[in-house]
Backbone:
């Protein structure tokens, strides 16, 4: 399913135009990104949690040389599905 397919499905379910559904869809994901950029956690009961997690710096072997490279620490986006979402997908 593509983004436009999902927007069309949401528009049909909500009884609104695709344009209005797209505006809400885009605004929702902007808001989720802002929450994670603030290093906060967004919990949606029955769906799951979106959050940012610090990945520590780590060494890796450099290709073609004997020196090791270093990947700097950085924040990465994470999603933890709720148990009810896991159960509904497993059916």
Residues:
């Amino acid at each position: 399913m593509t983004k436009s397919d999902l927007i069309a499905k949401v528009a049909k379910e909500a009884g609104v135009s695709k344009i209005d559904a797209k505006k809400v869809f885009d605004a929702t994901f902007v808001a989720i990104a802002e929450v994670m950029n603030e290093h906060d956690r967004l919990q949606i009961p029955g769906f799951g949690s979106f959050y940012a997690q610090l990945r520590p710096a780590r060494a890796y072997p450099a290709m073609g040389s004997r020196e090791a490279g270093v990947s700097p620490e950085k924040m990465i986006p994470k999603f933890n599905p709720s148990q009810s979402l896991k159960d509904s997908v497993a059916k």
Q: What stands out?
A: The chain has one domain: 3-90. The domain at 3-90 is CATH 4.10.520.10 (HU Protein; Chain A).
